[in-house]
Specification:
alpha+beta, 14 helices
């Protein structure tokens, strides 16, 4: 059976994962119902009732009337239960000052804390336990446009779907990620990959200012000049290490082609892997173009297939002409169509449930090597056949036009990967914790194949796609030294230490 449109749209939801991100896990049809995740029970803190009463007595009066404090780890489900934080307390905030007061309380009481919007971030660097606090930003979801509509401001709880819809209703486009259920800000702060980057550059290139809660217990506004050009540089690519961003203001642009774009799936057979890989590698992606390719399997039989997702900011005729080289290969199915801007991501909505286990490994490539992808295909097929319940696992490649992003240099922000042409991910998806090691071996093997044939002399991984075992050099490139110096100035005690900490 050929994969339908739905499974492909699911993969779009993974393209901009973030530490503030959002997500959910669809339990695969081939998994036992009893293996659906470990976070159903109340959290039990070693400090017990006194810990809870301290929170209620000392923190609750400082929060806004709509804010709440709950002591269940299930109140903050993650997209993946693999190495997920398990907080003893979740603070649901509704005002930016709620974030400030919660951070001040945690610092005073020496508690670790983590902010999230929807919880896509999957790194193994999280170290949140039963005595620690998760700050749920979801209530900070207000969105507003300037009078001229050339700027948009939104809170740390705004999802991509909300920013896209608000932009569409105002006749604008914003350089966001491409999955409705992901938190917008976290995806941007890591760099901000997305379809619109061909026209407008990375998400971070479009930032104008951010509101930031710092380790000093202050809520400040950061822009290119105030309070520090170094801090502005650092948060654009390593933002989680310097504070919690409660809101941002960024550029917005008029819609192109009345907001209509061409997008969909081209399905290819396994014997076409080398040809498809080489063709994608050879594409000269214009500013109107992006493309993603996948090894994926669809229920009920979970037969693996090669899926390619071209996107063109224009009509179907223009899109098919731009991707003629792929059509010349003879796809066995074509589901492409024209869609309005506010519906581009909607096909993935049903694939946003939370839970399950999903270790992820990524790598940045200069080139695509067809022989390497044949080896990866073989590993993928073997993993599916040898391990029951892993049918929703996938391998994916993201390809964007970098013409606008590369107008700026790697030194313009802490994001160090403008030279990367292809961002890759391998995702093992299952429910049974006993399969962790098999999944890890699979992910590590695929990642090594990519790294050994990347076209770079050094390893490179986009922070939002990292597993958690990468070196600082791999994540931050040659910026590690400068980032450490800025970290020492703005967070000398390492309070913001959860997402690829700079230590």
């Amino acid at each position: 059976m050929l994969p339908g449109r739905g499974i492909v749209w699911f993969f779009f939801c993974l393209i901009n994962p973030s530490w503030f991100g959002s997500a959910i896990v669809l339990v695969p049809n081939d998994l036992p119902v009893g293996l659906r995740g470990p976070h159903a029970a109340a959290a039990v803190s070693p400090r017990g009732e006194k810990y809870h009463s301290d929170l209620e007595r000392d923190l609750r009066p400082r929060l806004s009337s709509n804010a709440s404090i709950v002591h269940f780890s299930s109140a903050a489900p993650r997209w993946s239960d693999y190495h997920a934080p398990e907080p003893g307390t979740v603070v649901n905030v509704f005002e930016e000052n709620d974030v400030l007061e919660t951070v001040k309380f945690c610092i005073k009481n020496n508690l670790d804390f983590l902010a999230q919007n929807g919880a896509h971030g999957w790194t193994t660097t999280f170290k949140i336990g039963k005595e620690d606090v998760l700050i749920n930003l979801r209530g900070l979801n207000k969105i507003s446009f300037s009078k001229a509509k050339d700027e948009v401001t939104f809170g740390g709880g705004a999802l991509i779907s909300e920013v896209v819809e608000a932009s569409y209703q105002n006749g604008r486009q914003v350089a966001t990620g491409i999955c409705n259920c992901v938190g917008t800000i976290g995806a941007i702060l890591g760099g901000g990959l997305g379809r619109l980057m061909g026209r407008y550059g990375l998400g971070i290139d479009n930032l104008l200012s951010v509101n930031l809660v710092t380790a000093a217990g202050k809520l400040i506004t950061v822009n290119p000049k105030t309070p520090s050009s170094d801090l502005w540089w650092a948060i654009r690519g390593a933002g989680a290490n310097f504070g919690i961003v409660t809101s941002i203001t960024m550029k917005s642009y008029p819609t192109v082609n009345s907001g209509i774009a061409w997008i969909g799936n081209l399905i290819f057979t396994p014997d076409q892997i080398e040809a498809v890989t080489q063709t994608i590698s050879n594409l000269d992606l214009k500013k109107e173009m992006s493309i993603h390719s996948y090894f994926a399997a669809a229920p009920p039989n979970y037969d693996p297939a090669i899926i390619v997702n071209p996107w063109y900011s224009g009509s179907a005729v223009e899109g098919k002409a731009a991707f003629k080289a792929l059509y010349d290969l003879g796809p066995v199915a074509d589901t492409t169509e024209e869609l309005p801007y506010n519906q581009i991501n909607s096909g993935g909505d049903s694939f946003c449930p939370k839970g399950g286990r999903k270790p992820v490994y990524g790598a940045g490539l200069r080139k695509l090597d067809p022989a390497t992808f044949r080896k990866i295909w073989n590993e993928y097929v073997s993993f599916l056949s040898d391990n029951p319940g892993v049918g929703q696992s996938s391998v994916l490649v993201e390809c964007y036009s970098h013409k606008t992003a590369r107008v700026l240099s790697d030194n313009s922000a802490a994001y160090p990967h403008r030279a990367v042409n292809f961002h890759t991910l391998v995702i093992a998806w299952y429910a049974n914790v006993t399969q962790d090691r098999a999944a890890e071996k699979f992910g590590e093997k695929v990642r090594k194949l990519w790294q050994d044939n990347s076209g770079f002399d050094e390893k490179r991984t986009y922070i939002n796609f990292g597993h958690g075992d990468e070196s600082l050099q791999e994540i931050y490139g040659n910026h590690s030294g400068r980032l450490k110096a800025i970290k020492h100035q703005w967070d000398p005690q390492g309070r913001f230490n959860q997402f690829f900490p700079i230590v």
